[in-house]
Design a protein that fits this description.
The structure is a single chain. By secondary structure, this protein is mainly alpha-helical. The protein has one domain. The protein is built from seven helices and no strands. Helix 3 crosses helix 7.
Length: 137
């Protein structure tokens, strides 16, 4: 397939919607669901997080979500149905991203609990992005 044709057939609304879905899922995942486990895994205290540049962090997070959603949409193509989108997203998170996070954590000596928080979110976010992209097809 020619790259121009691939870009022309891409549903950019689906890409933005998928990125937004992953962004808001992250707010729930790293907020009420797993904030304490995530902070404990990194050794953060709430007051340490208050002085960070949240606008920059959240803005760049959304941009990175756009990159991931765009790449996933390119791989799914315009013909993917919802089930294929869900499965492709799941296996992208479970088969590519989570193991890569695991390799990083092995070399960094990070705890297993933190691995499950972050790798679990990778699986959830890619599954969600795959579903959203495919739902727009």
């Amino acid at each position: 397939m020619e790259m121009g044709a691939a870009f022309a057939g891409l549903n950019w609304i689906a890409v933005v919607a998928a990125a937004a879905a992953a962004f808001f899922a992250g707010a729930i995942w790293y907020g009420p669901l797993f904030a304490k486990a995530w902070m404990a895994g990194f050794g953060f205290k709430e007051e340490e997080l208050e002085g960070r540049h949240h606008g920059k962090i959240f803005g760049l997070t959304f941009v990175l979500n756009l990159v991931m959603a765009w790449n996933l949409a390119m791989f799914l193509g315009p013909e993917a149905d919802l089930m294929f989108g869900v499965m492709a997203g799941f296996f992208t998170g479970f088969g590519f991203v989570a193991p890569l996070i695991g390799v990083f954590y092995l070399f960094e000596g990070r705890c297993l609990k933190l691995f499950f928080v972050n790798a679990g979110f990778a699986v959830v976010s890619f599954t969600l992005m795959g579903a959203v992209v495919a739902a727009f097809n």
